[in-house]
Amino acid sequence: MQVTRSLDLPALDRVDTLAQELAMLQDRGKRRIAILGSRHVPVVAVHLVELVARSLAQEGHNLITSGAQGVNAAVIRSVLEIDPGRLTVLLPQSLDRQPGESREQLERVLHLVEKPEHDELPLPMASSLCNQDIISRCDQLICYAFHDSETLLASCRVAEDMGKVVTLMFFD
C-alpha cells in the first residue's frame, strides 16, 4: 500500500514574503516599526494596541505613528510611559490643526514632525501623504483597521509594494 502526502505550498510570489517575515522574527536587532490604525477603536482593542506598543518599546524597538485619536493615540500613550525617546510621531498637518484632545498628548512627544505645508489639503489627502512618509521611514508596518478603512488599506498596499513586512489586523 502506497501512502501519498499533499503539501499546501505557498504561491511562489509569497515565498519571498514568508522568508522575509521569518527572518524578521528571528532577527534580534532593533527595528523601526510603524503602527497605524483607525480613529474609531473598540475599547477592548485599545488595550491590545497598548499592550503591543508597550511590549515593542520595552524590547527596544523604535515606534512611528501619526497623531490621530484611536489606535495612534494608544500607541503614543503607551510608548510615552516606557521611553519617550523610542517614539516618532508624524502629523498630517501642523500641530495647530490637530484636535484639542490630541494636542496635550502630542506636546509631550520628543520627536514630533509637523507638516504645515499640508494645512490647506483635505485631511484624507494629508493623512494619506503622512502615512506614505511614515511607511518610508519604517522596517515593518502593523495596521489595525476595518474592512472599509480605505486610507489605511491603501497604505498597507503601498507598504507591501515597498517590500515592507505588513501585519494587518481587522476590528470587524
Name some characteristics of this structure.
6-stranded parallel beta sheet, 172 residues, 6 helices, disordered N terminus, alpha/beta, Rossmann fold
Account of the 3D structure:
Strand 1 (32-37), helix 2 and strand 2 (62-65) form a beta-alpha-beta unit. This protein starts with 11 loop residues before the first helix and ends with a strand. The protein has helices spanning 12-26, 43-58, 71-82, 100-106, 123-137, 150-161, and strands spanning 32-37, 62-65, 87-90, 111-113, 140-145, 165-170. It is 45% helix and 17% strand. Residues 3-7 have low confidence and may be disordered. It contains six helices and six strands. It is of the alpha/beta class and 172 residues long. The chain has a single domain, classed as Rossmann fold (3-Layer(aba) Sandwich), CATH 3.40.50.450. Helix 2 packs parallel to helix 3 and helix 5 (123-137) runs parallel beside helix 6.
Brief digest:
With about 170 residues, the chain is an alpha/beta fold.
Strand portion, in percent?
Answer: 15-25%
Total beta strand runs: 6
| Order of strands in the sheet with most strands | 4-3-2-1-5-6
Q: Helicity, in percent?
A: 40-55%
Chain-averaged pLDDT: 88
Number of domains: 1
Sketch the topology as an H/E string, one letter per element: HEHEHEHEHEHE
Q: What's the CATH topology name?
A: Rossmann fold
Q: Which overall shape is indicated by the principal axes computed on the Cα atoms?
A: globular
- Work out the helix count: 6
Low-confidence stretches: 3-7
Any idea what the radius of gyration is? 18 Å
CATH level 1 class label: Alpha Beta
* Alpha carbon gap, first and last residue: 48 Å
The CATH architecture is: 3-Layer(aba) Sandwich
* Sheet having the most strands: 6 strands, parallel
Helix-strand makeup class: alpha/beta
